[in-house]
Amino acid sequence: MTVLVPTSLGDALASLADDPASVALAGGTDFMVQVNEGLRRPERIVALGEIGELRTVRREGDELRLGAGLTYTDLMGDDVAVVVPALAQAARTVGSPQIRNAGTLGGNLATASPAGDTLPVLRALGASVEIASAQAARTEPIGAFLTGPKTTSLRAGELIVAVRVPVRRGPQEYLKVGVRNAMVIAVASVALVLDLDRQTVGVGLGSVGPTVLDAPEASAWLADRLRWKRDRAVVDDPRVAGEFASRVARAARPIDDHRGRADYRRHAVEVMARRALRRCAS
Q1: Which of 87, 227, 232, 275 has CA 20 to 30 A from 112's CA?
Q2: Taking a C-beta distance cutoff of 8 angstroms, is the pair 174, 198 a contact?
């Protein structure tokens, strides 16, 4: 096995262009499990840990640009948590401190598991993914980038460079259910984002479909029934929370597997959606 350790993004992209079958390795928290179990044996690895360009946080107008090499621990820092609190909440639920220090935002996207903790938040925010190769660069909405269970639109020789997150002024929430309270893969998860300026609602659902889902009908329904104020959103009718939660649950597409039954997952989504709304709207 050949391991290359580039120190710049340009060198990394050139290495991937030389051999598109190369595997880009960031934190390795998912990939190395497969290697250790004998499921994968790559001939050539391009290790990304020394590329400082991939670990930057930068505000660009109405967007926060997050480098793909940011770890979960990085996402919990104030420069992210103050602007995108739900992303910091999601990062805090991931694994142990050792895993949070190694696993990366770009790795969570590239793995594309429906249970990925940052992905429902990114879907609720309407984030987009910056992708580059040695020849070109492009940006895709996260809904188009995640194409199915553990599959993406990433092509040979391409690398996830950054994530662009629209800055939403308003309350955000991320909730997750697992078989225990910590260090667990989500059985179901819900992200809720209220944008007080645009008076819109964003929803992201994890572990209840072939990929991370949104709930556009439920979001639009709720946005029309909230009373939007400058500093908060208000639910005037107590029946709104229950109906919104039911509509979010109907957007889920769960299956039975070894972690949980489909009917339990749908029920969990309904409970979490109702709870998230109560926390986000007075």
Answers
A1: 275
A2: no
Q: How far apart are CA 194 and CA 190, in angstroms?
A: 13
Place 38 in a pLDDT band, splitting at 50, 70 and 90. Answer: confident
Integer Cα distance of 77 and 104 in angstroms: 14
Other CB atoms within 10 Å distance of the CB of residue 156: 11
153 lies in the same domain as 182 = no
- In sequence order, the 6+-apart residues with CB closer than 8 A to the CB of 231 are 196
Return the pLDDT at 182.
66
Instruction: Say whether both 188 and 243 belong to one domain.
Output: yes
**Domain limits at 203?**
172-280
- Cβ neighbourhood burial of 243 (10 Å; 0-12, 13-18, 19+): middle
151 and 180 in a single domain? The answer is no
Round to whole Å and give the CA distance between 226 and 148. Answer: 33
**CB-CB contact of 16 with 42 (8 Å):** no
Of 259 and 90, the structure prediction assigns the larger pLDDT to 90
| Same domain membership, residue 238 and residue 145 | no
Strand partners, 138: 131
DSSP designation for 19 = -
- Rounded to 5°, angle at Cα 30 from 34 and 118: 155
The C-alpha atoms of residue 140 and residue 54 are separated, in whole angstroms, by: 18
We report the CATH number of the domain holding residue 101 as 3.30.465.10
On whether both 271 and 202 belong to a single domain, the answer is: yes
Q: What angle do CA 207, 210, 211 make, to 5 degrees?
A: 70
When divided into structural domains, the chain yields a total of: 2
Global pTM? 0.94
